[in-house]
């Protein structure tokens, strides 16, 4: 039986000494900051309360994009920055990011010229890192690209290009990259308090959820990158800290590939609530979303609202033929966006998605806002600030040209493509020839890899984020849970009762992803 890798990670995290940079939060912003710090040579520790990308960072629309909608809002600076980062990520993780054509259908005579001009500006802002030039399509060409577009009244469309990726797999890749550069990361280690001396934050107290034991660790710079939970950490320093965020919920549905059989995505530029709606091919399925619903509270498991599901299906039904129905939904998921409060009471869809860095009187550095596409830039800006705040050596960033773990331009079929250069090692593990479930693309070997090399600790970690079984088909993933639990128990040296409890917990969770 393989040795449980967690014990060595926990020992490294709690070893005597002072870390240069301690990052709280293992989503896009936290992992990006930790990789930035470690690659500059700073001793870096990351603590995650649940699992990497458990929250918002595994629940995106699966796009690496500049933000067409932000261009319409006039936020040219944010779009230019995001397009630049999109190009860098495409170069630094070609095994995870691919170019994707988007068809914007035109059902009015003015729509083609109107959106065409805006998307030409999009091309120009991308500069040398542009993925492809936008162009006008006639009706036949638009239907060739997106055969399930509603043909009645269709006059043509605009084709433009953005990037597509697997969000949770990028998070795992950043985790591996952090480790490659000497950083340490520990999941299931929630921070329970901040250590203060002379009014300054000098460390944190955290609990190991697997043993219940508490530890204290010290660091010169402490970064709060906990997404929609940043205010909880801020209140550990100052109970009266005013909330920074106005969280918003985004919901998606996943349907069969027959609803979008071409090689292109569809972008509906203006829905009834003023947002855009995407239908995106992803892992041989189709993701349709998203919504923008203000919420008052935060949850590790936000649930789609009935009105959000109805909105997505009704909007998609106007533009897609055949139209997906509730019976066609294989999975549905919701994520919470950490939107920074505006000065006035602006609608959440109008709030900027730019990132914000704030430093408290005690030196706690809080990073929030932003989006996956700009994760690297968020990390760079945060470490620049951390070096100044903590008196660390100021060093130049290397991440603009940093190949992420598994970097490979060799084309591999799904599902092994996301492992890049590790794919052959995954295939060498036991179970590489055994499919986990007839309706899922994954093998048993991928689960063993997730436990041995990617810090997976639960069936949910394996089926929701190391593989994407939960999002592709929630019912099938639930049926696969007992076998996944048996493999996990075997890898971690646990007994049958433990495996049964793991499977049952996952199946209860998966019910919330089914209509």
From TrEMBL:
Cofactors, names only: FAD
Keyword check for Transcription regulation: no
Keywords annotated in UniProt: FAD, Flavoprotein, Glycerol metabolism, Oxidoreductase
Domain FAD dependent oxidoreductase: 20-375
Entry annotated with the keyword Oxidoreductase: yes
Limits of the Alpha-glycerophosphate oxidase C-terminal domain: 396-497
Pfam families, A to Z: DAO, DAO_C
Record family assignment: Belongs to the FAD-dependent glycerol-3-phosphate dehydrogenase family.
Protein name, per record: Glycerol-3-phosphate dehydrogenase 2
């Amino acid at each position: 039986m393989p040795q449980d890798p967690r014990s060595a990670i926990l020992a490294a995290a709690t070893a005597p000494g002072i870390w240069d940079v301690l990052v709280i939060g293992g989503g896009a912003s936290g992992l990006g900051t930790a990789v930035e710090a470690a690659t500059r040579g700073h001793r870096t520790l990351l603590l995650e309360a649940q699992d990497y990308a458990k929250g918002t960072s595994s629940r995106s629309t699966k796009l690496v994009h500049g933000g067409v909608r932000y261009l319409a809002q006039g936020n040219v600076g944010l779009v230019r920055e995001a397009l630049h980062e999109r190009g860098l990520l495409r170069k630094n993780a070609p095994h995870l990011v691919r170019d994707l054509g988007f068809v914007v259908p035109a059902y009015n005579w003015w729509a083609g010229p109107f959106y065409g001009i805006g998307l030409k500006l999009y091309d120009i802002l991308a500069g040398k890192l542009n993925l492809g030039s936008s162009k006008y399509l006639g009706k036949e060409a638009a239907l060739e690209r997106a055969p399930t577009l509603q043909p009645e009244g269709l006059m043509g469309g605009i084709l433009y290009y953005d990037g597509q990726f697997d969000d949770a797999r990028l998070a795992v890749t950043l985790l591996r990259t952090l480790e490659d550069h000497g950083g340490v990361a520990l999941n299931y280690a929630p921070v329970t308090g901040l250590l203060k001396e002379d009014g300054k934050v000098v460390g944190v107290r955290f609990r190991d959820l697997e043993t219940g034991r508490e530890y204290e660790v010290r660091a010169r710079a402490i970064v709060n990158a906990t997404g929609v939970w940043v205010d909880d950490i801020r209140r550990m320093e100052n109970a009266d800290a005013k909330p920074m965020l106005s969280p918003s919920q985004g919901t998606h549905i996943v349907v069969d590939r027959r609803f979008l059989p071409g090689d292109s995505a569809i972008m509906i530029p203006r829905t009834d609530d003023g947002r855009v709606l995407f239908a995106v091919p992803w892992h041989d399925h189709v993701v349709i979303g998203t919504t923008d619903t203000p919420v008052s509270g935060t949850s590790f498991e936000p649930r789609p609202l009935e009105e959000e599901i109805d909105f997505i299906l009704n909007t998609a039904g106007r533009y897609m033929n055949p139209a997906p129905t509730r019976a066609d939904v294989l999975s549905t998921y919701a994520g919470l966006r950490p939107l920074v409060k505006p000065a006035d009471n602006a609608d959440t869809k109008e709030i900027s998605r730019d990132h914000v860095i704030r430093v408290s009187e005690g030196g706690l550095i809080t990073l929030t806002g932003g989006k996956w596409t700009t994760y690297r830039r968020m990390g760079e800006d945060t470490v620049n600030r951390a070096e100044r705040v903590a008196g660390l050596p100021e060093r130049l960033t290397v991440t603009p040209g940093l190949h992420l773990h598994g970097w490979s331009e060799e084309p591999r079929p799904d599902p092994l493509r996301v492992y890049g250069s590790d794919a052959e090692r995954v295939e060498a593990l036991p179970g590489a020839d055994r499919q986990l479930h007839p309706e899922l693309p994954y093998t048993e070997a991928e689960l063993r890899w997730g436990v041995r090399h990617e810090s997976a600790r639960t069936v949910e970690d394996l089926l929701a984020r190391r593989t994407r079984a939960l999002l592709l088909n929630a019912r099938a993933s639930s049926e696969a849970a007992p076998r996944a639990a048996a493999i996990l128990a075997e890898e971690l040296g646990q007994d049958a009762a433990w495996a049964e409890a793991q499977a049952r917990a996952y199946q209860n969770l998966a019910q919330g992803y089914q209509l």
